[in-house]
Design goal:
The protein folds into two domains: 4-233, P-loop containing nucleotide triphosphate hydrolases (Rossmann fold, 3-Layer(aba) Sandwich); 240-363, Nucleic acid-binding proteins (OB fold (Dihydrolipoamide Acetyltransferase, E2P)), CATH 2.40.50.140. Helix content is 25%, strand content 34%. It has nine helices and 21 strands. A hairpin with a 2-residue loop joins strand 1 (4-13) and strand 2 (16-26). The model has no long low-confidence stretch (mean pLDDT 89). This is ATP-binding cassette domain-containing protein.
């Protein structure tokens, strides 16, 4: 296995800049997810790692060796495509063994290796079938097996689970997690599904408009999103973001918004600087699981009419409508029945809130 490094890599298609000055380091044996919405540059970045696209500027290194202009066959990488890209006229054994065939391996050796990988992926009994004769999940495993038959330095995955149904995606996700830990492979995985990224990655690079806006562990990104974009993109339901007016008093902040009041957040130099540039307005963020039905006398609260109450089995998603599509969602673990149109008060603790400045950047709180 090997490390991967981007040094100020950019890629333009005529006037459109798909990737803009991206620097990224991926350690040997890491599983890194490139996460973001359609058009953010994640697939273009992966294709540049594979050698299918050439950077407009910058350098790409694999295992410390520059590969920016190397042909894909000379990079010692393996790639799993979104549409599996299986040869329809070949049986599974020949599909899996094809990377060894083009490298001149004898037929007996390449078929033995294909059988070995297929048994690990639990599709060894399907070797004589054509791709059209197996399920989508089995096609996905065949595509994965083809990537694994030849030991590569880096394994690249381009949304390989997007064509599977929900149950198969969960099974395949767990299998990939186990396989990466078992093999210690260096893997780069492109997805727009934040649940996949959170479940699989050792680190996540969140991308937006061709740039990496945060690169950290899944738990760091979830607990301390760098921007409102990350806060809104990572999490299901996403973080609630509310514009608030700030007042200072005795070393603490008093925050007020539509139907919202909060006190008890310590004043810091970072918050003071943000207030100096944005007036008295900041954005408050709180995760749905950190909201609860307010008890009598609760101090930090938000009150609004109930918009929806979705029973999810072990929990309910309670959404309040603050007007003009400004809604707040809470994850409530209670059997209490709430009627739509009823006015509901939710409470939250000061230690669970986030503040973002006028540019959308997170402001460090006391103790960070």
């Amino acid at each position: 296995m090997a490390s991967v490094e981007f040094k100020n890599v950019s890629k333009s298609f005529n006037a459109f800049k798909a990737v803009s000055d991206v620097s990224l380091d991926i350690g040997d044996g890491e599983f890194v997810c490139l996460l973001g919405p359609s058009g953010c540059g994640k697939t273009t970045s992966l294709r540049m790692m594979a050698g299918l696209e050439t950077p407009t500027s910058g350098q790409i290194l694999i295992g410390g060796k520059e590969v920016t202009h190397l042909h894909p066959k000379d990079r010692n990488i393996a790639m799993v495509f979104q549409d599996y890209a299986l040869y329809p006229h070949m049986n599974l054994a020949d599909n899996m063994a094809y990377p060894l065939k083009v490298r001149g391996e004898p037929v007996q050796k390449r078929h033995a290796r294909a059988r070995e990988v297929a048994d690990v992926l639990k599709i060894g009994h399907l070797m004589d079938r054509l791709p059209s004769q197996i399920s989508g999940g089995q096609q996905q495993r065949t595509s994965l097996a083809r990537a694994l038959v030849y030991p590569a330095q880096v394994y690249l995955f381009d949304e390989p689970l997007s064509n599977l149904d929900a149950k198969l995606r969960l099974e395949a996700r767990g299998f990939l997690n186990h396989l990466q830990r078992d093999m210690g492979m260096t893997a780069v995985y492109v997805t727009h599904d934040q649940a996949e990224a959170m479940a699989l990655a050792t680190r996540i690079a969140v991308m937006d408009q061709g740039k990496i806006v945060q690169y950290a562990s899944p738990i760091e990104i979830y607990r301390r999103p760098a921007t409102t974009f990350v806060a809104n993109f990572v999490g299901n339901p996403p973080m609630n973001l509310v514009e608030v007016e700030c007042e200072q008093g005795e070393g603490q902040l008093l925050l007020k918004g539509e139907g919202l009041t909060m006190q008890g957040l310590p004043m810091t130099d970072a918050i003071g600087k943000a207030l100096a540039t944005s007036g008295k307005k900041l954005t408050l963020g709180v995760r749905p699981e950190h909201l609860a039905i307010a008890a009598a006398g609760a101090s930090n609260t938000v009150t609004a009419p109930l918009f929806a109450n979705e029973n999810m089995g072990p929990e309910s998603l309670v959404t309040l409508d603050r007007g003009e599509n400004a809604r707040i969602t809470a994850r409530i673990f209670t059997d209490d029945h709430l009627n739509v149109d009823k006015v509901v008060t939710l409470s939250f603790l000061a230690e669970h809130v986030h503040l973002f400045d006028g540019t959308g950047k997170r402001i460090p709180v006391a103790g960070e």
